[in-house]
Amino acid sequence: MYEYEYDEFFIGGHWVAPAGDGTVEIISPATEEAVAVIPEATEADIDAAVSSARAAWDRRTWRDLYPAERGRKVLRLAEVLDSRADDIARRVTLEMGQPMALSARSQRGAIGLIRSFVDALDRIVFEERRTGPAGPALVRREGVGVAAAISPWNGPFFLSAVKVAPALLAGCSVIAKPADNTPLSGYVLAEAAAEADLPEGVLSVVPAGREAGAHLVAHPGVNKVSFTGSTDSGRKIAAVCGEQLKRVSLELGGKSAAIALDDVDIETLVPALVAGSFYNTGQACTALTRLVVHRSRYDEVVEAMAQAAKNMVVGDPLDQATQIGPLATAAQRNRVEAYIGIGKSEGARLVHGGGRPAHLPKGYFVEPTVFADVRNDMRIAQEEIFGPVLSVLPYDGTDDDAIAIANDSKYGLHGAVFTPDRARAEYVAARVESGTFTINGYVNNPAAPFGGVKGSGIGREFGAEGIDEFLEYHTINDPAAA
């Protein structure tokens, strides 16, 4: 009946029967049929994972290894995952609808990201001797303890890798919690960890829903929470972590603006915006969902983006030609359709899309959608839709006017500017309030820190900075040694 069936969790390096007898069916968003079943996680399962991680931390087996040795073991994990990359890509496509061509690139990119974290170890000073007025001191950097790595449904494997790898490299014991509606790639991570022979207790993988996830966040045995998800959920997690004074990093929502200046090159802009606006069927926190265009080029850009959206292939996500797959759940499709209705009611002009594809009677599909004549005070310009919907806003006047529109947002995750004038591009890039920005493109660079400002989060991922999030300073003063 099911393509995949699991009846255990991976806790502390062992396959363990769940504490309860509930199950969760995984529904393909393309066919609306069940493709897998997994156990339903309970608080008792989370307790077992935390207990195992805590015991591993107290044994010091992993954290006392030299960083380079941890790096070698994580590289072995990456090697095993690489051998399963095609399997991971297919699972992600089945469980959340990511088009296969994108999924194959994304999962291999995640494995490459793991390797880049290992390379970044060389940039971190784990032990330093200093001398000051009070004598010598040894400044050490150590893992923060037991880390909860909570990843969402829109990038289940990639967004697990971006947390699990740096936490392991820092010396932490890690509990990975994928969303329980997209658990299949998480099971491959668990199988790879077993094959890579990580020490007992160092990694657990427990797909879980909201209640078990909240229990993990609030668990007193957890020292650090790394979360990717909605801004509303991030605020709740931050409140819990603040009350307990535990470390937290949050990669949250976005409503990123791409600015097309009056000298924009259309041939550069359009492919970048197709990727940036409709990546993963628009289910990406980094998506460039506001396009701010100088009035003198506005009609030309709107027409080009509408034609580009019209040309996109919407269909079976397992087909290599597909560019737009289904939204991940029926609830997500309903949300996107509601926002399309809001856009119309607010007076925005629908220039393409807005409906369900007529040739796809099954599946949670929505056409790539482009709105014109959008004002920045409209809800479709201010609120994260998380679907294939692009709002095109005009601006008059100077580059500073475009910057003001881009910054008029509660979010600050990503952004872009399009102009052949390098000086103007750098001027804009330096003034848009975002953690990440791209000139003439849509890029996330694994060698550089990634994260947001304002309502888009706290902390950074990627590079050495991503490992830093899981490290704590430990100062040992030794005045007698002076």
From TrEMBL:
GO terms for molecular function: aldehyde dehydrogenase (NAD+) activity. It catalyses: an aldehyde + NAD(+) + H2O = a carboxylate + NADH + 2 H(+). Residues 15-476 form the Aldehyde dehydrogenase domain. InterPro entries: Ald_DH/histidinol_DH, Ald_DH_C, Ald_DH_CS_CYS, Ald_DH_CS_GLU, Ald_DH_N, Aldehyde_DH_dom. Transmembrane segments: none annotated. Keywords: Oxidoreductase. The active site is at 251. Its EC number is 1.2.1.3. It comes from the Bacteria. Belongs to the aldehyde dehydrogenase family. PANTHER family: ALDEHYDE DEHYDROGENASE, ALDEHYDE DEHYDROGENASE-RELATED. This is aldehyde dehydrogenase (NAD(+)).
